[in-house]
Amino acid sequence: MMKTAKQQTVSLFNASPRFVARLVAGALTLTIGVTSTLPAFAQSRSVPIIRDAEIEALIADYTNPILNAAKLKKRNVQTILVNSSSFNAFVDGRRIFINSGALAQSETPNELIGVIAHEAGHLAGGHQERLREQLSRARTIAVIGALIGAGAGVAGAASGNSSAVGAAGGILMGSGEAARRSLLSYQRTEEITADRLAINYLNATGQSAKGMLTTFSRFANALSLNGTQIDQYRVSHPLPRERIANLENLAKASPHYNKTDSAALQLRHDMARAKIAAYSGTGSVQRIFRNNPRGLAARYGDAISTYLNGSARNALPKIDALIKEQPKNPYFYEIRGEILMKANDPVGAAKALQQATALDPRKSSIMRMSYGRALMLTGSKANMPAAIRELKAGIARDPEFPSGYAYLAQAYGQSGEIALADLAMADMHYYSGDRQQAKIFATRAQQKLKKGSPDWLRAQDIINTKK
């Protein structure tokens, strides 16, 4: 089941020459997109994050070979899916963020793998660290310009020379623009480097770079149809046609250029696209799979859409038909469990989710938490130990997922373990970013816990957390 969580973000760039003074306030990101707006993690806005066992498993299979080729595996790079319909991806720290729109719009696995390879190029090339140095340099240019401009303005005002005052404004504006253009030029160079590194990683993993060219062609066509005129010196990325020209010969020289994705991988890709389309709204599934409306992926999306639109009774036979075709697909049982949950049948849901977890080769934390939640919602005291066990097992694999703690708090509450319920609520608020509420619940929990016990110490850690 697709779930969303929150991450912090703020826009890094704007068009004002005064932008440089704010550039160093937040973290830095590098993207594959064609706009000059870069997401960055800081301050108070939020990015919705999608959590889904099926999609995360697919993205991991796309990402791991690339990370190995880029020698990034030991850095514990995370790949995170952002709930956004735009085609984009970006990096921040040791994380690769991929918009759900990038997956939904990529018609083949190879197209999305090319995007991931590009972002890996940014991480492997240390582009974020070097960008910080460029930001510092740009800030210096702007500050010096501002000081000169301010000095000229003061002198002009003191002498009564209005033209000198006007010239001071020009110096201020000019210094900001010079810093801006210098920084954007540097970023365009890094984008070209990341593109070329991506081709190296694709070659090393025996994959085609054709998907990268397809992606850039899509960008170019979109700009052409939109009639947008872009000043190539005022954007952070080379224009799509320029990127294609830079890469085409390299891509076609690879012995893997005409290699296509396996039918099994293409089906998994389509199933993920169907799920995203279903959660995005009615009509999307039909548009994406209009050439194969009775294929497995299209029917999967239709079953999910039917369930989401409020008809569990009609959705159930649709998902059961898919289970009959693929009786060992854990994600079909997972959706069946969610349908039964919506139909107010937690006992049936728990059985379906138990089958899903048993069939899941990756032992997804999200799936185990869903199973634990279903057991808890049965209301049976006999099921509470198993519910708590499954929820804790899921949390152990994914300790920063707030919803897991919320479910665990409910299970502890139904079991009469109030101190542990309060501690779980403290963790839920802690990982949701509400440290004040986390401390309140941790204090309540600590008053009932044995002093010095692991749970008491966890509560103390939360209480001692500094803002």
From TrEMBL:
<dbReference type="GO" id="GO:0016020">
    <property type="term" value="C:membrane"/>
</dbReference>
<protein>
    <submittedName>
        <fullName>Putative Zn-dependent protease</fullName>
    </submittedName>
</protein>
<keyword id="KW-0482">Metalloprotease</keyword>
<dbReference type="Pfam" id="PF01435">
    <property type="entry name" value="Peptidase_M48"/>
</dbReference>
<dbReference type="InterPro" id="IPR011990">
    <property type="entry name" value="TPR-like_helical_dom_sf"/>
</dbReference>
<dbReference type="InterPro" id="IPR051156">
    <property type="entry name" value="Mito/Outer_Membr_Metalloprot"/>
</dbReference>
<keyword id="KW-0479">Metal-binding</keyword>
<dbReference type="GO" id="GO:0051603">
    <property type="term" value="P:proteolysis involved in protein catabolic process"/>
</dbReference>
<feature type="domain" description="Peptidase M48">
    <location>
        <begin position="64"/>
        <end position="250"/>
    </location>
</feature>
<dbReference type="InterPro" id="IPR001915">
    <property type="entry name" value="Peptidase_M48"/>
</dbReference>
<dbReference type="GO" id="GO:0004222">
    <property type="term" value="F:metalloendopeptidase activity"/>
</dbReference>
<keyword id="KW-0645">Protease</keyword>
<keyword id="KW-0862">Zinc</keyword>
<dbReference type="GO" id="GO:0046872">
    <property type="term" value="F:metal ion binding"/>
</dbReference>
<keyword id="KW-0378">Hydrolase</keyword>
